[in-house]
Amino acid sequence: MNLQEEMSSLVEEYKSSGLTQKSFSEQKGIGFHKFNYWYRKLRDEQSRGATGFMPVRTQGSSLPAETVEVVYPNGVKLRVPGGDLSLLSNLIKLY
Asked: What top-level branch of life does the organism fall under (predicted)?
């Protein structure tokens, strides 16, 4: 079991425990801040969807129709040919 799976399991256990995050993390021998980080991280992933993909918004652009712009959550923007689906797939998987 990797760390993300382990923390996901603990977060689910916490949700049904009725305890505060501080009490739960103390009982499990985990630092409060570490547990809180994983709780927020997993909650945010669930709110975006299990895949971690972010919604794509289309808007008027000066880019040619055959160009696709990929914008990562950290602000990095990439412009790639829209017809190259394997390249787009690989770029999405990189993040």
From this structure: Bacteria
Q: Which domain holds residue 75?
A: 59-95
Q: 8 and 44: one domain?
A: yes
Render pLDDT for 15-36 as a digit per residue (tens, 0 to 9): 999 999 999 999 999 999 999 9
* 24 CB burial (10 A radius; 0-12, 13-18, 19+): buried
Q: Is the dihedral of CA 41, 25, 21, 8 positive or negative?
A: positive
- Higher-confidence position of 79 and 81: 79
* Same domain, residue pair 39 and 64: no
* Residue 91 near residue 70, CB atoms below 8 Å: yes
Helix, strand, or coil (residue 53): coil
Q: Mutual orientation of helices 32-48 and 21-28 as an angle, nearest 10°?
A: 120
